[in-house]
Amino acid sequence: MSSTGPSESPAAQGATLDASALEARRRGNTRLALICTGVFAGMVGLAFASVPLYQAFCQVTGFDGTVRRAEAAPTQVLDKTLKIRFDTNVRDLPWTFRAEQVSQDLKIGETGLTFFEVTNTSDAPIMGRAVYNVVPEAAGPYFRKLECFCFSDQTIGPGETVKFPMVYFVDPEYAQDFETRNKPEITLSYTYYPSSADAAPVQSAHAPGDPAASALGGS
Question: What is the pTM of this model?
Answer without folding.
Answer: 0.61
